[in-house]
Amino acid sequence: MNAVKIGLDLGSRYVKAVFMEAGQMQEHRLYDTLTFYRQFGRKVHDELVIDQAALAWPAYQEIVATGYGRNLLRVAGGRTIPELRAHVQGALAQTGLRDFTLLDLGGQDSKVIQVAGGRMVDFRTNDKCAASSGRYLENMATVLGVDVTWLGQHWEDPVELSSTCAVFGESELIGRIVEGHELERLAAGVNYTIVKRVEPLLREMLSPALVFTGGVAYNQAVRHMLATMLGVEVIVPEYPQLNGAIGCAV
Known about the structure:
Keywords: Iron, Iron-sulfur, Metal-binding. GO terms for molecular function: iron-sulfur cluster binding; metal ion binding. By secondary structure, the chain is of the alpha/beta class. 37% of the residues lie in helices and 28% in strands.
């Protein structure tokens, strides 16, 4: 019998699929969310039917899905698990730790989860404001005329950006550009805004080890600022953006 298990994370910006066999990831794929639904998925009787032939997925034994928001569709032919559970399981599998705080900054939401003895004991989520998400960084990078990789390399001497709203933050950033601040300091200010948004939540559930997942975990500046501000070890797993999908497949 084929022992491949597919973990599917239906995110707000990207759909992540991992293919696991005997506890080892054999392959992973990343799809733009809108493209995925338009080309490969359709809703039938409150289920998401996926055109697996068009995706050329390998034969599998089981598919387990999770995803963004409270209204996740059940995947036809598979089962669905809660998003928080998937992310905790992914972090446990990727790090081997049992006690930590998990920070997941995704495309449009943020999650802080306290894990003790391998179990979730407390959590906070924010899916109503984009100011601590990957979408915020993408938008601000566009305003600055840089890519998100370059943006994530700057943390020194950040320009103060007081707005905590993603929409008003763009206007404020344009104002700072007009004032003539250096591009590197403006980039650092954008990154610092992300850290300021999540700091209060993290301090409520702080552990000596902070596991950082989601696409924003690739941002070097945010990692550096978190470690400096909180005085903890920041651990980024090998596949931070795939963490939820891995949690479905283990």
